[in-house]
């Protein structure tokens, strides 16, 4: 194991008007340490995942964690960023600190405060994670993924029904997740139809194909196996892989997320498992077209056949491989820096049988795919219940 998750905390995602970046950080930091059965003095290192890029005026958040308790003063604290995969980058740094023998307990916090910014500021901040000389004309990440959807449709035919099935599935799952931004089952017909309430946003993508702008935070404590042996609960980080691809989309086939495929292959090899050994997957559905292509990239379906996974119910809870039982980014929300940590927390809750409302029965092993940019920074984690 690369480390053991022994405690966690997670705010509700959404428009959190009464919360500041600092209050979110302090709350989840204190709650995660307490959930791990530790005292703040027991924490050896702190890693904060925060994308920001102008979304919040507070641009130096690492030491905000120290506001949670005086005993955290003088602990090493570092902020990391890797676009929408920032949270997983923070967890990777924590695992490396433990593996190198530099720490036995690491507090990881992922956080983002987005809704106080204007729509134009959010658009500009997110677009900064694209290759500007090539993609700035797209204007937004919705525009970029709209183009990806158009390329996919040109090659494999109109997949609008499959995308609507993915949106409906994730909203149905999110409706049962008390931590989700949108807790409403929208239904397939609403997600399928272009309407005043569900207009086209970019290319063939409708509003229901796009994740929302959210605030939120999540935190976890990653510990060495000796510490985890004394903890009340333990979810092992059995494997983690990071693969970065070219930033310009012009250098890649955007109907295939090849970095995602490579990351899944490395992580499963490291874990000595196959995809069929997993009980569910949390994957990065910033847009429904991303989830569709990710089915193919992870090996669930052949290229061009990801629609079968959606239309034939393979990815429903109770199907061949449930995907995004939490509601995913689509319904749970996507506060950038918090997303990767949230995915690990929600997965750990599932594996401990503590995912209220969205539990996958009997789950013991799961995979997580979190990406930064348009399949540029690709992270896959394999988690397994230990105790």
Keywords:
387 residues; alpha/beta; nine-stranded mixed beta sheet; two-stranded antiparallel sheet; 34% helix; 17% strand; globular
List the helices and strands and how they pair.
Elements: E1 4-10, H1 21-35, E2 45-49, E3 77-80, H2 86-99, E4 105-112, H3 119-127, H4 132-135, H5 141-156, H6 160-174, H7 188-192, E5 200-202, E6 205-206, E7 216-223, H8 225-228, E8 235-244, H9 258-271, E9 280-282, H10 288-297, H11 306-311, H12 328-332, H13 336-351, E10 365-372, E11 377-385
Parallel strand pairs: 2-3, 2-4, 9-10
Antiparallel strand pairs: 1-7, 1-8, 4-7, 5-6, 8-11, 10-11
Helix pairs in contact: 2-13, 6-10
Task: Give a short synopsis of this structure.
It is built from 13 helices and eleven strands. By secondary structure, it is an alpha/beta fold.
Structural description of this entry:
The protein is α/β, with parallel strands linked by helices and 387 residues long. 34% of the residues lie in helices and 17% in strands. The chain is built from 13 helices and eleven strands. It has helices at 21-35, 86-99, 119-127, 132-135, 141-156, 160-174, 188-192, 225-228, 258-271, 288-297, 306-311, 328-332, 336-351; strands spanning 4-10, 45-49, 77-80, 105-112, 200-202, 205-206, 216-223, 235-244, 280-282, 365-372, 377-385. The strands form two sheets. A nine-stranded mixed beta sheet has the order 3-2-4-7-1-8-11-10-9. A two-stranded antiparallel ribbon has the order 5-6. Strand 5 (200-202) and strand 6 form a beta hairpin. The longest helix has 16 residues, at 141-156.
């Amino acid at each position: 194991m690369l480390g053991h998750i022994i405690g966690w905390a997670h705010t509700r995602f959404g428009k959190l008007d009464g919360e500041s970046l600092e209050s979110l950080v302090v709350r989840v930091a204190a709650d995660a340490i307490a959930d791990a059965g530790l005292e703040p003095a027991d924490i050896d290192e702190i890693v904060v995942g925060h994308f920001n890029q102008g979304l919040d005026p507070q641009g130096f958040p690492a030491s905000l964690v120290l506001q949670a308790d005086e005993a955290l003063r003088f602990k090493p604290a570092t902020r990391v960023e890797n676009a929408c995969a920032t949270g997983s980058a923070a967890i990777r740094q924590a695992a490396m600190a433990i593996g190198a023998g530099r720490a036995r307990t690491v507090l990881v916090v992922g956080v983002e405060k987005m809704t106080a910014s204007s729509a134009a500021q959010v658009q500009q901040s997110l677009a900064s994670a694209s290759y500007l000389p090539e993609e700035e004309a797209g204007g937004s990440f919705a525009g970029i993924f709209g183009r990806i959807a158009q390329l996919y449709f040109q090659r494999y035919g109109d997949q609008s029904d499959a995308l609507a099935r993915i949106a409906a599935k994730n909203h149905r799952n999110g409706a049962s997740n008390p931590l989700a931004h949108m807790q409403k089952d929208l239904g397939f017909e609403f997600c399928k139809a272009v309407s005043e309430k569900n207009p086209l946003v970019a290319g063939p993508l409708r509003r229901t194909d796009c994740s929302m702008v959210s605030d939120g935070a999540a935190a976890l404590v990653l510990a060495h196996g000796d510490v985890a042996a004394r903890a009340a609960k333990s979810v092992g980080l059995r494997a983690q892989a990071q693969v970065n691809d070219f930033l310009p989309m012009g250098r890649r086939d955007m109907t295939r997320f090849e970095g995602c495929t490579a990351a899944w292959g490395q992580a499963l090899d490291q874990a000595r498992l196959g995809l069929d050994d997993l009980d569910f997957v949390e994957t990065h559905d910033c847009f429904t077209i991303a989830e569709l292509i990710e089915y193919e990239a992870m090996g669930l379906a052949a290229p061009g056949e990801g629609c079968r996974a959606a239309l034939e119910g393979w990815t429903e809870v109770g199907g061949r491989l449930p995907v995004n039982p939490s509601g995913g980014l689509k319904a749970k929300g996507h506060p950038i820096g918090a997303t990767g940590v949230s995915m690990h927390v929600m997965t750990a809750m599932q594996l401990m049988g503590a995912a209220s409302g969205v539990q996958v029965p009997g789950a013991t092993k799961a995979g997580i795919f979190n990406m930064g940019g348009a399949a540029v920074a690709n992270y896959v984690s394999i988690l397994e219940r230990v105790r």
